[in-house]
Amino acid sequence: MKRVAGVLTLFVSQASYAQDANDFFLDDAPAVLTATRLKQPLSRAPGAMTVIDKTMIKASGAKEIVELFRLVPGMQIGYKRKNLSSATYHGMSDEFSRGMQVLIDGHSIYNASFGGVHWDDYPLLIEDIERIEVIRGPNAATYGPNSFLGVINIITTHTSQDQGAHASFRAGSNDYYRSTARYAGTWNDLSYRFSYMHQQEDGLESVADSQLVDVLSTRFDYRLSENSALQYNFGYSADKSQTGGHGGLNDSVRNQRASRISQNLSWTHQFDMNEQLLVQLTHIRRDSVEPVRVGLTNLNNDTMSERLDFELQHTTQLFDDLRMVWGLGSRLDRTRLPFWLNTHDDKSNVLYRLFANFEWKFLEDFTLNLGALLEKNAYQNVDISPKAALNYLWSEQHSFRLIASKASRMPTIGEQHIDIRNTVPSILPFLVKTTGHLMPEEVYTLEFGHHGQFFDKTLTSDIKFSHQRFRRLTQITGFDVDPETGEPIFHYQTGDVATALNYEMQLDYRPNPETLLHMGYSWINIDGRPMALIDYGSSAPHHSANLLASYRFPQQWQASVGYYYQSAMTYLRSTEINQFQRLDLILQKSLKLTENQSLNLALIHQNVLGSKDEFTPGQHWSDQTFFEISYRFD
Cα torsion at 57, 61, 64, 69 (round to 10°)? Predict the structure, then answer.
């Protein structure tokens, strides 16, 4: 019995612990892990958070992981093309969401070359996700200088909680086909999961961007002892895409071939209920081959991006009312971008970081979190990102929080060395060069929030007010004339400033296991000085809203409605897209074939209200209908 208790303690303590998603919001004090790297109830978490669990994932009918973030108030999702989607919080972004830190089971998958994440070919299936924790606001004190606007932490299901075989097939409009096969089993102290996906689709309207992608994702969990465990994740993807262009002489359609390897090894040791050591090593590499022909000129847009990351994290209870988590890490980023950097040589950056967070509970109802992260890299001196948060538990149903923080965003390798000497309309239609040394962007945030529980804790609410001041934002500004071509070369520099005011509201209502109502609203106003090609003020919609309603009827029928609204906005260095409303309808039927076998049928209609612009005017998804059948054997 002692051995079993030790194993369960270890599984619950791991950053990827598995909690029944159906019960998450029905628990008396649902806990999150992402805010400070400490397990905390939502009512005491030092930040506004959105949790997307399995119930919401299934009800949404989402085709891809990135679509789930439409459920987060204040987030914008846009497809510049099928294989290049953007997920950002409060705007301030182009197709590369440089201000968003993205984690999978606690390790960063932030792109080393230009930031953001290539969501289209990352080797992870949406079916393998236990839940997603999104921090709506800067959190560089916990996860480093790329946690500039927000943090997304995707937590995958533990292999011991997902045993058996599963297969699914989805087909529909736009020549869309998706098939998956998954199997999870146990052998002695080893539990494992293999997942495979094949997907193809024609892409957006009015642009050639069809895609075919194959993904292999695996996870292995090995119990070394009752207090120690190893976790190893390996993923591989191969992507064949048409990208950009409208077929003209100077803007030809390009064929891209990309492959990615992602692997993470972590060791967890649980000394007791209050002390834990976590060590992890991550390796990610993405290679892309993309010849580009402009007129009679052949250009090379091949890219390589690689990351090797080491991190140690120690959690301990110093006193009855004082906990601490601290750690250190080192990371090597390496990239090769001949088109963007005007060289075939590799560029690299080495980073070192040290972080700590203290959680002090005092006077029974107050919780104080103090944290900071120090980072040193090859381009910058030591940069510090501090954060202080005070939570007051007014009653069992109501808590208030006050947060002050400073966060940085380190310029990426691509930004530090950008030197574009050829114009390609569908890549970048003007010449750009980094002039001078880029400094880290900075944001100072003051936030006030309220977390509430009503109707016997079946309704949870979160309200947030924040003020932000941005400094040293990167920008494309004045230009010189290239002496060789006579064309203007724009300068890529830091120095712009902006301020932002924001109000957000989120509600989640689950009176019983059959009913789900999730809704959110965000208002933001950014006051930024527009430069030559940058207008931060319109980079986020003033108003955005989301609603997901789902009900499971008798006989295992389930119906869901998803509604999303966004007012007009302009992605950086792009053109304004008008407001849009999106309505999705999902109908599902579950069949119990035998005690161990089940079948699920789904009919999904997206964009019922008609297609709207995604990232660029005239490029959008059409209304689409899909049919899905999935089989499970436990």
Answer: -60
Residues comprising the chain, all counted: 634
The H-assigned helical ranges of 194-271 are none
Q: How far apart are CA 171 and CA 214, in angstroms?
A: 16
Q: How confident is the model at residue 354, as a pLDDT?
A: 97
Q: Summarize pLDDT for 287-312 with one digit per residue, the tens.
A: 999 887 766 677 788 899 999 999 99
Number of H helices, E strands in the chain: 6, 35
Contact 114, 152 (CB under 8 A): no
**CA torsion 203→628→561→593, rounded to 10°?**
-170
pLDDT digits (tens, 9 = 90+) for 427-456: 777 788 887 788 889 999 999 999 999 999
| Residue whose C-alpha is closest to residue 156's, from 187, 188, 191 | 191
> Which residue do the tokens 């040193």 mark?
376
Which one-letter amino acid corresponds to residue 30? P
Phi, psi of 530 (to 5 degrees): -65, 130
CATH 1.10.510.10 fits 2-633, yes or no: no
Closest among 74, 210, 58 to 136, alpha carbons compared: 74
Distances 468 to 144, 244, 499, 501, 590 between C-alpha atoms, Å: 18, 35, 6, 7, 47
Write the pLDDT tens digit of every residue in 218-256: 999 999 999 999 999 999 999 998 776 554 444 566 788
Nearest to 464 by CA among 481, 445, 477: 445
Output Rg (C-alpha) for the chain, integer angstroms. Answer: 24
Percent of the chain surpassing pLDDT 90: 64
Rounded CA gap, 271 and 618, in Å? Answer: 58
Give the per-residue SS3 of 545-600: EEEEEEEEEHHHEEEEEEEEEECCECCCCCCCECCEEEEEEEEEEEEECCCCEEEE
Query: pLDDT below 70 — which residues of the chain?
Result: 1-29, 244-253, 294-296, 425-426, 477-478, 485-486, 529-533
Amino acid at 433: K
HEC letters along 490-507: EEEEEEEEEEEEEEEEEE
Residue 167 phi/psi, 5-degree rounding, is: -140, 145
Torsion angle of C-alpha atoms 613, 617, 619, 624, degrees rounded to 10? 20
Under 8 Å between Cβ of 586 and 604: yes
Tens of pLDDT along 575-599? 889 998 999 999 999 999 998 999 9
430 vs 415: CA distance, rounded Å? 15
Most distant CA atoms of the chain, gap in Å: 78
